[in-house]
């Protein structure tokens, strides 16, 4: 087995190892709004669940992106889960645009009003979480960890049984990030009974 001490690697080398080994990763496709009202749309895959009580998710940024700045300014964001129907649209929003250019306008992404926060949502989305900033932590010299509290869960009608709260995972069309330009969709699944 080859060993690499992190203090002897460049940040780029560490990123390459992490992003290619911690897979698959869900993709948070995030809308935020600046104080001036400009809507930013961008995808991030350093994203996961932190807690169900309260309902907290985490997003890590490798530097202070427009999305992160907007969350700090307004205290809110909408996190959309990427699926097979919107993955191409999501990929376009990964382009580097100047700060005053809205990805929603530039790439003609249809938005709609959110239910509980001011930041709009992406219409072409099966699952989205309306969130408010819970905590922000600086990590090292450049990275930032955001904990976002979900104040409203929005799921397409046929994805959830309202009595059992069972989610129809097979209807989600979930897409995950691998490394570089590679993505994955759900393939063969298997079940293992957990011990008591």
UniProtKB/TrEMBL annotation:
In this chain the Flavin reductase like domain maps to: 20-167
One molecular function GO term is: FMN binding
The record's listing under Pfam families reads: Flavin_Reduct
Which residue spans adopt a coiled-coil conformation according to this UniProt entry?
none
**TM region(s), chain numbering:** none
Which cofactor does this sequence's record say it needs? Answer: FMN
Record has Flavoprotein as a keyword = yes
Q: Would I find ATP-binding among this entry's keywords?
A: no
Keywords tagged on the record: Flavoprotein, FMN
Give the family from UniProt: Belongs to the flavoredoxin family.
Protein name per Swiss-Prot or TrEMBL: Flavin reductase (DIM6/NTAB) family NADH-FMN oxidoreductase RutF
